[in-house]
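Bumping with the actual sequence this time:
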Amino acid sequence: MKETEAAVYQRFFIRPIPGRRPRIESDIQAVIDHAVDCRFAPDGTLLKPTILKPGQGNYLIPMRWFSGEIITIDDASTAQWFWLDADIPFSGSLARRLALTLTRHPEVACVAEDNTRGAAHGNAEAWIIDDTHYLLQLD
């Protein structure tokens, strides 16, 4: 990697069916299987509570600090959205497997994704993943 190049990572946002977050976290860990490091929430859970606002079409807008980092809120009991703080290589096989697992998961209401490169350049929109999303088009 050249000195000017930066690694680009996929960020996943999950809206679980209320009360179903523990099983989703367990299934995420099974897919990741120690392939990447995960940074846990202060309460020790895998998914960090955050806020996403409606965008246009199939986009949502994650709340971010000026640095581009996603804001984690304190009260998980009131959160509708959670994010996975892990360095998942952008558009790689792990990202595809995780997208498939989450979109097919019976306890997930919605999944969205963005990447660290877009956030660094001011693009704070997260695309809602569905059957036509590029992550799900396996080669």
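The tokens above came from a reply further down the thread. Residues 28 and 98 are 7 Å apart (CA to CA).
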